[in-house]
Design goal:
Blueprint: H1 14-27, H2 31-46, H3 68-78, H4 81-127, H5 130-191, H6 194-211, H7 217-239, H8 245-257, H9 263-282, H10 289-302, H11 307-329, H12 335-355, H13 361-395, H14 405-435, H15 439-471, H16 494-522, H17 539-574, H18 589-608, H19 632-638, H20 642-659, H21 673-693, H22 699-716, H23 723-739, H24 749-770
Helix pairs in contact: 1-4, 5-6, 5-7, 6-7, 6-8, 7-8, 8-10, 9-11, 10-12, 11-12, 11-13, 12-13, 13-14, 13-15, 14-15, 14-16, 14-18, 15-16, 15-17, 16-17, 17-18, 17-21, 18-21, 21-23, 22-23
Family: Belongs to the VPS51 family.
Pfam family, one: VPS51_Exo84_N
Subcellular location: Golgi apparatus, trans-Golgi network
Length: 771
Amino acid sequence: MATASGAPQPAMDEKARRTRDLLASFYNTDPSAAAAAGAAAPASLARPSPTAAPASPLDSINSTSFDPEIYMNVLVQQSNLEGLLQRHVKMAAEIKNLDTDLQMLVYENYNKFISATDTIKRMKTNIVGMEANMEQLLSKITSVQSKSDTVNTSLFDKRENIEKLHRTRNLLRKVQFIYDLPSRLNKCIKTEAYADAVKFFTGAKPIFEAYGDTSFQDCKKASEEAMDLVIQHLQAKLYSDSEPIEARAEAVVLLKQLNFPVDNLKSNLLEKLEDCLLNLQNEPTQASIGDISKTFRAYLIIFPDSERRLIELAQALFSNRYETVRENLKKRISSTDLLAMLRSLWEDATAIDEVIPEAALPAFSLETTRDIIRQHIATAFLHLQSEISDALVRTNSRPNEKLDESQLQTAMDTSKIKVSQGCIDLLQEFHHLIDGNTELLVKLRDLIIDWIQEGFQDFFQKLDGHFHVLSGRSKSFPQESSALDSVQIDKVPTVLVLILAQLCVYIEQTTIPKVTEELASSFSGGGARSYEYGPPFVPGEICRLYRSSGEKFLHHYINMKTQKISKLLNKRFTTPVWIKHKEPREVNMFVDLLLLEFNGVVSEVKQILPGLIRRHRHSDSTGSTTSSRSNPMREDMLNRSNTHRARSQFLENHLAKLFEQKMEIFTKVEYTQESVISTVLKLCLKSLQEFVRLQTFNRSGFQQIQLDMEFLKSSLKEFVDDEAAISFLLKEVNNAAHERCLDPIPLEPPILDKLINAKLTKIKEQNQNMQ
């Protein structure tokens, strides 16, 4: 920036420049800004814009064209007294600030000027007399240099002679060392100072290479023989397990200095280490992992380039040891024993990791331990399923042998204990897997809890499928065939199906709530399972599964019993020729067989299902069963002619069907003795009705059916409470025979009662003889 005269301004410091800028911004003394303002002002005066508002005089106080008179006139016109006072106070404050800054600038420049003046004065004082001292120093240096040159000239010949003698002395020492080398090496061998021997020999080796075939031939030969002995001692030390690691490492270093091929030694030592590790796998008690760790550390020190091979050996060692643990899982070891083995392996892996961290043994151990624990949990559930299956199969492995009531009850109780107590025992066994406070278990705790809960979910689902296989309702899987060798699926005992039905109810109502409660109290947490898969254990789903399976097994049992009895009935009604049947003499023998089958159903159901069978004996069971058959009105009707009586009875039956109330025969089957027995009887009687409808009867055949049904009416009351339904179905059988009879004339009531009483008396005598 130039002044008005065009001369450049002197340089100023930062604070002065800042103060000047502050004053310039206040008074707008910048020439460029002033020129721009001056150029803009005439232009605005010459050509006033019709739209732009004129600049206010109050805003031009910092411009070069500032007019005090105009400023004061405008200020007085536009401001009141209070505004003028405020403007005065503001302007006075700004003036005071500017004066203060200007004063500070003057003071600072004055102080700097005084300091510069004092510095110049001190410099003038210190320089006085320095030139004379410098001249004196120069003269002394010149004198010293001349005397030094004189001494060097006088001593030059003697110095050359001394250096020559010194070189000769060193050469003689070397020659003497070469001649003394064999004895030195032998002394080192005796004192086992092999490092000094190698040092001496390597130092003399260049001389032997240059003059070993001439002057020092004998020394070279003796030294080499001594060094061969040194190499043998170093090799023996390297192979010796009793030597410390440092000594063996030093031996390898010395052999390398002698250019001895150590690669073969390394291979032999690594093979020896591999054999040692193999022996450790076969007989773990021979060496501790601490010894193995020290051995690895020694090999790394001795052979630093063998790290990769050592990593492979360490990984192979632990892979084989973990494989041994997997083999032990097939023997069903306890969780405590498994944890002891895994804990030992984890500690060993941690110890080896301190020596060879590149082998990543802790990560490998953690991953392998995770798989082993998961396999252990799955194996435990598989063994429990096998025990439950064996208990069921062993009890019912002989379908042709009928079990007595005590055996059935024992089989049912054993199955319940195997399921319930087996689950509780498993939970107690799994407690050991999460109670430990070792680093390994802490890392896997959430996963173990999830695996246990998933295991119970999968166990109950597979057990349900296995129950269906045992019942013959589905085919067995290959892995389940061994458990079913003693049971032929096409000959499944009906009692086994009934046990499975009741066992499903027990699992739903007792076992699953116990397992759920124990899981909630002792195996809470987890959460390692992804949320997209849902909770690992869903008791509601398992309960619904076993509720459905129990109902299926119950219906399957009823169907099996009904089919067996239906085959008996079918044989009974297809064998005789009913249209040529003889006059009935007694109750047919098939009724005895039918009642015997019903008694078998009652015996099985009574031992397995809850509820009491109503046992009662009617007072008319010995012969007074004619209350509804021997009334006078009915006798009077039966005394009519046969044709009229048959037609009348046919019309009565049809009219009764029209006006009688509809009866619900088949209701929902429940897990009670009464419900199951009643359903079996109803289905059998319904089948009997259908078999009757397929035949054509003469009068004697119809009367035989009438006699059999009347006897069954009194006998079947002992088995069920629903007498009305049984009576209705028996009546339907009679009606079906009546419809299929060519001459439907029923037996006279006295004859009917006589035949039934004779049968009852015969049964009573047989029972007395059996007692």
